[in-house]
Design brief:
With about 180 residues, this protein is an all-alpha fold. It contains 11 helices and no strands. The longest helix is centred in the N-terminal third of the chain and has 15 residues, at about 5-20. The radius of gyration is 18 Å and the shape is globular.
Length: about 180
């Protein structure tokens, strides 16, 4: 237990920082809002990669153990639990089920507009989070699952979803 104390303190500190940051200032909109612009080959298959991942079905895991309403589980196995997102008692609970885009990228109401998303600085100023390994260990740590081992590089390879680089428009050749 003493060996785990520094890790547990780090996790507690990170959770405290995140709950006081962008997550607490913005509203969740759900994966359907993200899907509109992040689906298909031209968009890097971002939605499809998420949909096929364990993250998309993460709310099912606590349910198999009778923990579908356990706040400790739902903090990591859903999107925005206790912060205006997932609520197992709500009629539209599926809107935020699973670990959706906003669980890692921050609540999207203020940055989802195309005009904001095209301007990285504006998107960041409006709550977009660019996740790092530190973001992942907020949930992927042994504090609730003692046998959990997490390697960021391996995990990222399994869920990697990057937007394709926009190709510069070719200049029209003058007609002769």
């Amino acid at each position: 237990m003493i060996k785990r104390l520094p890790m547990l303190l780090l996790v507690f500190l990170l959770i405290t920082l995140f709950t006081d940051s962008a997550w607490a200032q913005h509203e969740y909109v759900g994966v359907k809002s993200c899907k509109m612009c992040h689906k298909g080959e031209k968009k890097g298959m971002v939605y499809e990669i998420w949909e096929a991942s364990k993250h998309a079905k993460a709310t099912e895991a606590p349910a198999t153990k009778g923990e579908e309403k356990n706040p400790t589980c739902l903090k990591c196995h859903s999107t925005g639990f206790g912060e205006g997102g997932y609520d197992p008692e709500a009629e539209d609970s599926l809107k935020f089920a699973g670990v959706q885009c906003e669980a890692c990228h921050g609540p999207g109401k203020d940055y989802k507009k195309m005009s904001i998303m095209k301007d990285r600085e504006a998107a960041l100023a409006n709550g977009l989070i660019i996740p790092t390994a530190e973001t992942c260990v907020l949930c992927h740590n042994p504090s609730h699952h003692e046998d959990m081992e997490f390697d960021y590089e391996t995990a990222w390879d399994q869920i990697k979803h990057e937007l394709p680089k926009e190709e510069p428009e070719e200049e029209a050749m003058p007609e002769e």
